[in-house]
Write a structure and sequence with these properties.
This protein is an alpha/beta fold and 259 residues long. The chain has helices spanning 4-21, 23-30, 41-52, 64-72, 91-94, 121-142, 168-188, 211-220, 229-241; strands spanning 32-36, 57-61, 78-82, 101-106, 146-155, 192-198, 249-252. It has a single domain, classed as Rossmann fold (3-Layer(aba) Sandwich). Strands 3-2-1-4-5-6-7 form a seven-stranded parallel β-sheet, with helices on both faces. It starts with a helix and ends in a 7-residue tail after the last strand.
Length: 259
Amino acid sequence: MLSTSSIRPSTSRRAATEAAQGSSDVYSKNGCVLVVGGTSGIGLRLAERYAERGADVIVTGRDEERCARVAAGVAGSCRGLALDLTEPDVVADRLRAVGPVRALVLAAIERDVNSIREYDLARATRLVTLKLVGYAEVVHALADRLDDRAAILVFGGLAMLRPYPGSTTVSTVNGGVVGLVHTLAVELAPVRVNGIHPGIVGDSPEWVGKGNVLDGVRERTLTGRLVSMDDVVDAAVFLLENAAMNGANLTVDGGWLLR
């Protein structure tokens, strides 16, 4: 005969599963999922994940036609919204009809190669504006549309810990993301704010086809495999939905930094 204590773990697991299955209802009934920078790559994959689960999803990108086209291709409820974070003065106006927001994902990026010896001031200013000023302005514009259960996820990257030739601005802004996460978590409490810092993502648009580089990364990764976009999306969902995660900056690299 089974004891009561032997039944409890399976009961707890079943309850947790039911709660997870019902999380899409929570999002659809209590606000949208807004993915800033959601028209390609990891941002789009995350938007697709939430749309598949029944959430009302909004994806943004710089080009209005592309936003509409990408959103139309997502299965489920998904809308496109043109938003350029390098123009922070117009962010609030562009977001005026958005809300309430249950999950805010700041994933917009721009590739920049900039060294300190050949420093391109215009490119550096553009990236800093996009990723630090622009990210902060989005949160500022939506602050009164985030309820106490809302969560914010800010994308950074591992160039802050492992710089490479030409990463001067990228390393700097990704380091700034850590500070932004901390201050937002304090200022917006009890809204949860976390950062996610992927390493090289082997199947992302930026890295597909770069076999020679990826072979070296795989060798240095403790798991013996490259991080995938789905790996990053799984980690993103964890940070958005686990009620105990707040003020954290999670690296997703398969142990690459340890070698």
